[in-house]
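Please produce the structure of this protein holding S-adenosylmethionine.
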Amino acid sequence: MDSNSDSEHSHSSGHGHSHSGGHSHDHGHAHGHGHSHEHGGCGGDHGDPDLAGAASNQGEDEAKALSEVIAAFLFYKQYTVNGGIYRRLHHLDNLSERHRSIISSVGTIDKIKNAEKLVRENQQFLLSLVHASTIDSMPDPTDSESGFKLWSKRFFEFREKSGKPPVADQHMDKVYSVLKQFVRDWSEEGKEEREQTYGPLLESLESEFAQVTPESRGDLRVLAPGAGLGRLAYEICCRGFSSQGNEFSFFMLFASNFILNSSEQVGQYTIYPFVHQFSNVVRAEDQLRAVQIPDVLPSKLPFPQSAEFSMTAGDFIEVYGGDEEKGQWDAVVTCFFMDTAKNVLDYLDVVWNVMKPGAVWINLGPLLWHFENVADESSIEFTRDEFVNVVKQFGFEWDEQQFKECVPASYTANGRGMLQYTYRSFMSVARKPR
Ligand SMILES: C[S@@+](CC[C@H](N)C(=O)[O-])C[C@H]1O[C@@H](n2cnc3c(N)ncnc32)[C@H](O)[C@@H]1O
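Below is the modeled complex.
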């Protein structure tokens, strides 16, 4: 993750809307590790709008969280152009003639102006994304006549009252993260990153159930919590398993809903995910490059008939911690997820809860504890060795042979940038005793 810039645990519902069923990919409306850690923007983690927590005020909190996310998507261009592009151009205006002409001669000014155009194109994409996810009862926020004005009025009023700018910086970081998350999950360019992480997870899952043919795996239920934009859950289904992703960030949910349900063609959408990143760039073309998504058509891939694919919206603990989910799952697959917990023992309780006796839990990721530096939040940060010990104490059967101490993996990396982060992730396989 280039940045766990995102934070994502907080308010709202905690229910799980499961939009599942057969081969439909319906999954409701719509995470990070942040600059602080500059590793991957999975669009959400601490303190941004999501579907966790506060069961009281549920409706109100959820509506507020939803508004903040929609505002961030809608004000992307305004925020980025006013705050970033114009600021840069204005700064150049104040330079001496000599400096300006040198800067101009190497192409920097053209680059900034081109970036502005591409931000505008990104905005069109984001408008479609919001449009596809807004629910019927809301005014269409992308309708310039009614919707956008109404929404903008509401947001300005709301933020003005609180003395804050229309969109909080951390929310805009989420929007930038979502664009990069699309590259990770749904572009040709993301293939290498997916192979590093989803590759070993899928391989282990398939070898676990090697005795069952893909055609008859539909009865096997696999849960992928912290699903991000859904590619891992989708790949699990492509291998014949019935798979369910779970996600609580509205940013992620909007984006996954869009790509899963609104794509009609491979490469249908063009985005410019790296346009905001002016540092550590080798060539302007790298920063301004287009990325086409999706690289596969989620609706068209022929899943084996019996395999079902679904996504649930809500906090993992709240959606899966109850009795109705007890012993319902044959496998749990977690990728860059366990470190999003304030107290990972809570996650382990739920993983244990959902697993059938004999079920397997396959995990891969680093330990970038998302709440480590979040003010007023509790956080328990285990070392990897401590984590392994905790898992063993829970009663899981630890598969020593499949434990990999170091799986190099990047997260929403800009493969052409001068700065590259690689996590020395670990991979673990553990089973619930029969
Ligand atoms: C680092 S991202 C990884 C996303 C995806 N697994 C991948 O590898 O690209 C972690 C994801 O978990 C989600 N998440 C964090 N806490 C969660 C919770 N309590 N319930 C559900 N999702 C959560 C975040 O919103 C984010 O999308």
